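haha ok so turns out i had the wrong file open the whole time. this is the CORRECT one, sorry everyone. sequence first:
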Amino acid sequence: MATIALLGAGGKMGLRLTANLIGSRFAVRHVEISDRGRQALGAMGIQTVSLEEALEGADALLLALPDNRIGSVLASIEGKISAGTMVMMLDVAVAHAGLLPDRPDLTYFITHPCHPPVLSYETDPLAHRDFFGGEHAKQHIVCCLAQGPEEQYSLGEEIARTIYKPVMNSHRCTVEQMAILEPVLSETILGTCLMMLREATDEAVRRGVPEAAARDFILGHMRVELAIAFQEKEGACFSDGALKAIERAKPVLFQPDWKRVFEPEAIAESVRHITDPNS
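then structure:
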């Protein structure tokens, strides 16, 4: 039975991980400094332990902490982490920013959920409303062995599949590829475009469209147009009128060089902002 030291166990993400680790083959030692978090864990019948007790002989250190705190926390406990320990993070930002301790004797493993796909086959009502995943809906995940022996990858992926279950595909990526996925693809681009869609819907309502009609219309069209754009339905395509509207609108809504957000220097700047404890 492998042992996991879970830091931030009583936080929002920590509680989700804790719930999925219950009943697994892993022995979990829960570390939480806040009274509120300890109370939440207590309500689940879980007692916390000290950091020193959690780290003693642990196979993996799982960090359920904000990105802008991971670097400082690891720096403060580096001397307490035994050689051979796997340090697992739920986001690539700290690794990409070069803020991990210079410890060649540690394994650094990163995993992140893809979240349940919007184009899915879920029929269970609970799964249908599980937007984040890790409870009822199936999701894909991405994993990265940033440092350490190749044989450690299977342990990291097994832990990842457990904390994010139920999991479908597990995709292996590099640190650089994970940084392209997030923050660039999922936050810089998708998050921004979705907030533009929300603002556009609000603008339609401001101009007189009934709110319920605007919401139903945009969410329905979002589903069918996603299916067309990502070729989910064979033979489906945008109408000639839609293609003309897209062609005319794209240079109005987007800068011609918008793909510069994928350039390494742009990614590095975004990651620096994410990991800055003062931002």
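The beta strands are 3-7, 27-31, 60-63, 86-89, 107-115, 139-147, 167-172.
again sry for the mixup
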